[in-house]
Amino acid sequence: MSETALIGIDLGGTNCRAALLAESGEILRSNRIPTRVAEGREQFLSRLFELCDDLLSFAENEKRCVLAVGMGAAGVIAEGGVVTVSPNVAWLDGFPLAETMAKGLRLPVTVVNDANAVAWGEAKFGAGRDFASFLTITLGTGVGGGLVLERRLWKGSDGAAGEIGHFVVDPGGRPCKCGSRGCLERYASATGMVCSVIELLEQGKASVLKMLPPAELTAFEISRAARSGDAVALRALQEAGERLGQVLASVANLLNLDGVVICGGPSASLDLLRPWLEAEMRFRTFAIPFKRMQIVRGELGDEAGIVGAATLAYEAVMG
């Protein structure tokens, strides 16, 4: 009797990554393609099916039966896998992605919000294993969120829950692509940290980061400079930490969660962010929820979304 497997897909605005996984969450084979948004939907789907066919062929050679496919994509995902709104891939708006993939692959397909996929991956196999209720925050180009309540993924009535990146922390602050101003992601994301550094450099502040070409000014470089004591880098991280702490204080008071799992590239700087984050929380949170809510870094890295999407697809098939 052949062993079973799953396919997990993480659809991003720049790259689309896919992997073949065992039910245990172990990745057996992985690959990626560039999304190439400008080429349009049909070109992308053609390349995505080729990517999946490669994984299916590998599974067949390994005598594994693929049970289902799970995909995480940015945006609001309605029941049935219809992409209501996609911020990074406009030609997915209103598109029945799950149905289209299922017809092409002749397999059950589940499509979920990418931050929800990360949250469920961490819930099942990562830093959220021991939390009954927790929030996952993904720090990247923006700030995403996935909410697990009593070991169930909470997506909201329309699949739009968890958008913590658009909590307003400064009503008159930086414009956000969502149309509002002063959203959390304009300060605490990788992009937000870069914005903070640029503003400080434009004010004439001295920093080693001034020597970098604009394309090389990244959250990684900011973190490295901060660890060397650079004042501008530290101020940018302070801004991010304080804004995160302000939002998490409200979350703690509202939901009394067990924990928060912080994922994404900038999460590598959690030790630098933590003093400012916790100072804000201590000041703004009631004592009992503050004591309860642990702030931890995700354990699955870049694979969290793939693992979570595949696991949700498996659970949808198995009931």
Characteristic terms for this protein:
319 residues; alpha/beta; Nucleotidyltransferase, domain 5; 2 domains; 5-stranded mixed beta sheet; 13 strands; 40% helix; globular
Strand ordering within the main sheet: 3-2-1-4-8
**SSE pattern:** EEEHEEEEHEHEEEHHHHEHHEH
Helix content: 40-55%
The helix/strand class is alpha/beta
End-to-end Cα distance, whole Å, is 22 Å
CATH architecture type of the largest domain: 2-Layer Sandwich
What is the 3D form?
Answer: globular
Query: Helix count?
Result: 10
Radius of gyration: 20 Å
What CATH calls the topology of the largest domain is: Nucleotidyltransferase, domain 5
Instruction: List low-confidence stretches.
Output: none
Q: Overall mean pLDDT score?
A: 95
Quick one: how many beta strands?
13
Q: Largest sheet at a glance?
A: 5 strands, mixed
Percent range for β-strand residues: 15-25%
CATH superfamily of the largest domain: ATPase, nucleotide binding domain
**In CATH, what is the class of the largest domain?**
Alpha Beta
Q: How many domain modules?
A: 2
What does this structure look like?
The chain is α/β, with parallel strands linked by helices and 319 residues long. The chain folds into 2 domains: 3-113, Nucleotidyltransferase, domain 5 (2-Layer Sandwich); 127-299, Nucleotidyltransferase, domain 5, CATH 3.30.420. The protein is built from 10 helices and 13 strands. It has helices at 41-61, 97-105, 114-125, 185-188, 190-202, 219-227, 231-255, 270-284, 287-292, 304-318, and strands at 3-11, 15-21, 27-34, 64-73, 76-77, 82-85, 95-96, 109-113, 134-139, 143-149, 152-154, 259-263, 294-297. A 5-stranded mixed β-sheet has the order 3-2-1-4-8. The relative contact order is 0.15.
